[in-house]
Write a structure and sequence with these properties.
This protein is of the alpha+beta class. It is built from 12 helices and 8 strands.
Length: 343
C-alpha cells in the first residue's frame, strides 16, 4: 500500500504541474499567471520530494529479510483469524476429522465429477455449492481442498443422493463452477499457503547459495507462534447444511497434524541435521506444546520433536551438540507434561 500511495502522489503532482504550466500565457495572447495554482504546484512539488525520500527509505527497509518475514507473518496471523475464528478446540472433533481423512479418497458408492481444467484450487463457493446440491437433491464431498493442484478431469467432487441418476452434464458444470481454479495459490481460503510462504523463505535461506540460518530460524519462530495459536482453536467448519437442515456438502478435513507437517517437514529435511536449526525447531515445538489443549495434538508434536532430535543427533559434530539436542527434547516433553524418552 505505501508504494501505491507514493506513486499516486508523485503522478498526481506531476500531472497537476503540467496542467498549471499549460495555463500560463504570455506574449500576444496576453499575460496570465495562475498564482494560486502555481503556489499549490510548488507546495505539491516539495511534498512529492518528501514522498520520494520516504519511498526510497521504505523500499530499502521492506527488502530486508526480517521485514519480509514479519510481513508474511502478519498475513498469516490475519488468515488465522479468518480460518480458525473459534476458540476452545474439541478433541473428539479432531479425532473425527483424522478418521475422515484416512478414507476420504474412497468413492466406491459415489459418482465422481472431474475438473474442467488444470490448476490450483483458489477458493470454493460453499454457499453456492450447498444451494446447487439442495436443488439437485444431492450430497457432495469435496475431494480436494483450496491450495491443492488439480489435473484436468481429476475428481473434484464425489456425489450421491436421490438426484444422482438424473444428473445432466449442464448440472455437473453448475457444480464444478463453484470452484475457482487458476494458476497460482492464494490465501483467500488456503491457510496452508500462508504457512508455506514462511517455509519457502526458510528453505531459501538454508540453501547453499544463500546460507542465512538466522533468517531461517526467524521463520521457524514465527511458524511456532502461528501453530501455537492454531492449537488453541477449533478446526474450520467442514459440514454444511441447507435451509432445511439437511447435510449437503462436506469439505476435506484439515487437521492440526497436517499443519505441523506443512510447517516443519521440509525445513527438517532441508536442514539435514544442522544443530542450530534443530535446536530452534525443538524450541518452536516446545512453545507449541505449552499451548496444547487436545491430547491428539501432543502425539503430533512428539512425533516431530523426535524426528528433529534424531536428525540433529546424526548431524551433530560434538558430544556437546548432541547433549544440547537431548536437553531441548526434554524441554519439549516437559511442556507436554509427558515423561522424557531421550536416547
Amino acid at each position: 500500500m505505501p508504494n501505491q500511495i507514493s506513486l499516486g502522489i508523485l503522478l498526481g503532482t506531476f500531472s497537476f504541474c503540467l496542467i498549471v504550466l499549460r495555463s500560463v500565457r504570455s506574449g500576444g495572447d496576453g499575460q496570465f499567471v495562475p498564482h494560486t495554482a502555481a503556489l499549490l504546484a510548488f507546495v505539491g512539488s516539495i511534498g512529492s520530494l518528501m514522498t520520494f525520500i520516504y519511498f526510497i527509505h521504505h523500499i530499502a527497509t521492506s527488502l530486508q529479510a526480517d521485514e519480509v518475514v514479519a510481513g508474511v507473518y502478519e498475513e498469516l496471523d490475519t488468515a488465522l483469524g479468518d480460518h480458525f475464528p473459534d476458540r476452545l478446540p474439541d478433541g473428539s472433533d479432531e479425532r473425527e476429522a483424522d478418521g475422515e481423512k484416512r478414507d476420504w479418497e474412497d468413492t466406491d458408492d459415489e459418482i465422481e465429477i472431474g475438473a474442467r481444467k488444470s490448476g490450483c484450487i483458489q477458493a470454493i463457493a460453499v454457499d453456492k455449492l450447498v444451494e446447487q446440491a439442495s436443488r439437485l437433491d444431492l450430497r457432495c464431498r469435496v475431494l480436494r481442498r483450496p491450495g491443492q493442484f488439480i489435473n484436468e478431469e481429476s475428481a473434484l467432487l464425489a456425489v450421491h443422493g436421490a438426484g444422482v441418476g438424473a444428473l445432466e452434464e449442464s448440472e455437473r458444470d453448475d457444480l464444478i463452477d463453484t470452484f475457482i481454479i487458476d494458476r497460482m495459490r492464494t490465501a483467500e481460503q488456503d491457510f496452508e499457503y500462508c504457512l508455506r510462504q514462511l517455509v519457502e523463505v526458510s528453505l531459501r535461506a538454508l540453501s547453499p547459495g544463500i546460507n542465512d540460518p538466522f533468517t531461517a530460524m526467524n521463520c521457524i519462530d514465527f511458524l511456532g507462534a502461528a501453530l501455537a495459536k492454531v492449537a488453541q482453536r477449533k478446526l474450520p467448519e467442514r459440514q454444511f447444511s441447507d435451509a432445511d437442515g439437511i447435510l449437503r456438502v462436506q469439505t476435506r478435513p484439515t487437521t492440526f497434524a497436517d499443519l505441523l507437517d506443512a510447517a516443519f517437514n521440509q525445513i527438517r529435511q532441508t536442514a539435514g541435521g544442522r544443530t542450530d536449526v534443530s535446536l530452534r525447531l525443538l524450541g518452536a515445538l516446545a512453545g507449541i506444546g505449552a499451548n496444547l489443549q487436545v491430547d491428539l495434538h501432543r502425539e503430533s508434536v512428539v512425533k516431530h520433536a523426535e524426528m528433529v532430535a534424531e536428525a540433529g543427533r546424526r548431524g551433530a559434530q560434538a558430544d556437546a551438540d548432541r547433549a544440547a539436542i537431548d536437553a531441548a527434547l526434554v524441554r519439549v516433553y516437559e511442556r507436554l507434561n509427558m515423561p522424557a524418552k531421550c536416547s
